[in-house]
Amino acid sequence: MKNGIIISLTLLCLAASNITIPYPNYFPKPNYELDFSSKTYDLTQLGRVLFYDPILSADNTISCASCHSPYNSFAHTDHAVSHGIHDSIGKRNAPALINLAWQKELMWDGASNHLDVQALAPITHPGEMAESIEHVINKLQNNKLYPPLFKKAYGDMLINSQRMLKALTQFQLTLISDNSKYDKVRRSEDTFSIQENKGYGLFLTHCNSCHTEPLFTNHKYKNNGLGIDSQSLDLGRFNITKIPYDSVKFKVPTLRNIGYTYPYMHDGRFKKLSSVINHYISDNKEYKYISKELEHKISLSSNDKSDLISFLLTLNDRDFIFNPKNKFPRKILLQPKDI
Amino acid sequence: MTRYFTVILGLNLFYCSILGQSHIKFEPTYESKPLILDSTYSDQTKITSLRFYIGHVKLLKDSKIMFEQPSYQLMYAEFPETLEIQTPPNISYNEISFSLGIDSATNHQGALTGDLDPQHGMYWTWQSGYINFKIEGESNQPFTYHIGGYHKPFNTYRKVTLPLSSNKVYLPINAILQEMLPIESKIMSPSKVAMKFADLLSESFFTDL
Predict the structure, then answer these.
(1) CATH number for the domain whose boundaries are A181-319
(2) First and final CA of chain B: distance in angstroms?
(3) Which residues of B touch A111 (CB under 8 A)?
(4) For A75, which of A204, A261, A283, B32 could close a Cys bridge (C-beta 3.0–4.6 Å)?
């Protein structure tokens, strides 16, 4: 009898864990349907292998992970802007690939309207992976590794662009970062220090209108007064909408894992968080199209700045950074392919 | 027996061809003749590539829908079979409606396959969105028109309705180029001039009626 109760309780727990929502209850509803059950395991693995495989680039040297490293929250530390094939240099800083399920549009200027089609941009960009979709598919079809992986994921060996893109999407949707100290405090598993708490107060007053918690972005396009980069002449959102009002606007990036994603801003011009804060409190901004949230002066003492930074560092999610599920799939990709 | 079937088959083919109701053909023309790619016309114009999306084809008889194909078809000038919309035989109609290009909802659906596979060169990779109509060639100077854009203020998706008695819908390429070339020879993103091109295209289709 007792055993029976234990077994049924275990079964109940298992059933409950199957329908567990894979994000905290204080997160909003995502824009994508999330299914991380055992049914989608092989699809996620296929996406992971594709993400780390340089086969997606023209000369098989650059993978998605070349600019989106797991140790940097899938951004690229120490690189102001992306580097691509044949040592070419891009014009924007590789953004962190986390909590993408909540983004309506991708890229700094919102050029991609769906995670599926986002990958087409870096794969075909002459300065990034410089490959054609047709040729990538051809390479995957003729590689011994992929037909069985597609079969596992989709039930048959058909390889086409839709299947490749949807597998990449599935892997990227699993990149949910929700276990920072901030999250633990939200779940009453931890408490902020006095300094972090002061910083949180300053954050709510000065930063939260754009870097809105709990995702630490409102997913909108803003002009933060940086002024146009004289080299790249990057007009940001304007390039997509052609509306002058959108000049030099870029998507508000998440602040989660901010300690791992330096350098900062769309063009990576600031190496340190203190430089970013100094920009926001300085008068030396380009005010012509600046977003209304930044029209008034922000005053912070040097103590305030330290407090704010100590709070921002509570957004680092170490468990996410070192999660082996997100890393290079050694077992699959390091197999000798042609033996 | 076999001979009997052959006769029936022959008769069927005969009726289908005179009634012309086994397909609707979209026919790009130049100087009132079917367009030939890579041929230099008397005005020194040469078309090297032409492809476009036609979707939501409906055949109507006195406003009543007789045939409907909700999907999109990618039409390549170099492959005549792609210019045909297959229909059941023996339907009668006196009107056709269709869309030129891909609607906004479909543009938001992520990765698609078949005629909507991005590997057909009809998808912008640097910015999401299908190219609805693509024509390239030269006319004293090279021209490239990639007409697309699925949201305001540059939504280039167009609906067309025309009376129809035959099975052919014509698109006069020379008239379109004559109007566009003096304005712009290169369109490769959603813009005001792409909107003008889309308007012109949607007004240019014609039938025998």
Answers:
(1) 1.10.760.10
(2) 43
(3) 126-128
(4) A261
ipTM of the modeled complex: 0.86
Q: How confident is the model at residue A3, as a pLDDT?
A: 55
Common-topology check for domains A38-176 and A181-319? yes
Q: From CA A42, how far away is CA B86, in angstroms rounded?
A: 39
* Structural domains in chain B (count): 1
Q: How close B194 gets to chain A, by Cα (Å)?
A: 13
Answer yes or no: is B17 within a domain. no
The pTM score is 0.89
- The structure tokens 């999407």 sit at A169
Higher pLDDT, A231 or A325: A325
Q: By residue range, what is the domain housing residue B147? A: 23-204
Which of B128, B193, B195 has the highest number of chain A CBs within 10 A, making it the mutation to test binding with A? B128
In a domain, B66, yes or no: yes
Flag whether pLDDT at A148 surpasses 90.
yes
**Phi then psi dihedrals of residue B34, to 5 deg:** -55, 135
B127 in A contact zone (CB under 8 Å): yes
Contact residues for B135 (Cβ-Cβ < 8 A; gap 6+): B47, B49, B50, B143, B145, B173
3-state secondary structure of A106: strand
Task: For chain B, say whether A160 makes contact (Cβ under 8 Å).
Answer: yes
pLDDT above 60 for A106: yes
Q: Taking the CA of residue A323 as centre, how many other CA atoms within 13 Å lie in the half-sphere pointing to its CB? A: 20
The angle subtended at Cα A293 by Cα A289 and Cα A297, nearest 5°, is 95
Per-residue pLDDT reduced to its tens digit, A113-144:
999 999 999 999 998 999 999 999 999 999 99
> In the 8-state DSSP scheme, what is residue A247?
T
**Is the CATH code 1.10.1060.10 the one for domain A38-176?**
no
Q: Which residue has the tokens 């996410």?
A: A320
**Residue A114: its chain B contacts at CB < 8 A?**
108-111, 128
Q: How far apart are the first and last CA of chain A?
A: 56
Rounded to whole angstroms, how far apart are CA atoms B11 and A47?
55
* Collapsed DSSP state (helix, strand, coil) of residue B26: strand
Which residues from A are below 8 Å from B187, CB to CB?
none
Q: How far is it, in rounded angstroms, from Cα A232 to Cα A247?
A: 14
Are the CB atoms for B75 and B53 separated by under 8 Å?
yes
Over the stretch B94-146, which tens digit does the pLDDT of each residue have? 999 999 999 999 999 999 999 999 999 999 988 999 999 999 999 999 999 99
Distance CA(A191)–CA(B1), nearest Å, equals 90
